[in-house]
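Dear colleague,

Thank you for sharing your sequence with our group. We've completed the structure prediction you requested, and as agreed, I am returning the results in plain text so they can be pasted directly into your records. Please verify that the sequence below matches your submission; if there's any discrepancy, let me know and we will rerun it promptly.
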Amino acid sequence: MLRCAITSGDGWAALAQVRRWASAGVEFVQLREKQLAPEELLRLASSTAAAIRESLRGSEHTSRSATKLLLNGPAELAVRAGADGVHLTARPDELTPAEVRRRFALLGAPAPIIGVSCHTLEQVRRAADGGADLILFGPVFEKQVRGVTVVPGVGLEPLREACAAAKTTPVLALGGVTWASAPRCLQVGAAGVAGIRLFDDNPSPRSVQARNCR
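Please find the predicted structure tokens below.
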């Protein structure tokens, strides 16, 4: 099961989270700190990339399974920070995966990993056909605050359809996913799960992976 842990927008507090996720072998970390100015985001992204490398040094995780850092931000900034790739929205004015790869290549950086957030089947098809490496689809389940639904979920059937539409591109379920509901997402074709608060829950990502992936 692939896991994508998304930072919560708390700025430098993300560093402690990222170290824990990397030590637990979480496959992808999405640095989503849209409130930061570019230079501050660069400093945080650089420190985050260094924290991941430090957490993995001497661990049991190989380079093939090491945590990959995806930045919600410009390709140029991601390259300067040493990130493994970027995460894009599905907005019409967003860069395409091909355009991102060209920018990485022009800067002499290795080919990036590119994730895309999608909310409709049309967006999923466009992302998959456009060369995305990873699609986050949601919200699958509703979000509640104090017992009141603030974001409705689309449900498992649209997730199943999204996984089919993506063909060979991995789709991760996003939105209201818990470790109790994660197996249901996998059963309809999701390659894994993603979330902001999901990875702060107990048990830890490592023990959950062991429990759900036997």
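Summary note from our side: Residues 2-212 form a domain with the TIM Barrel fold (CATH 3.20.20.70).

Kind regards,
the structure core
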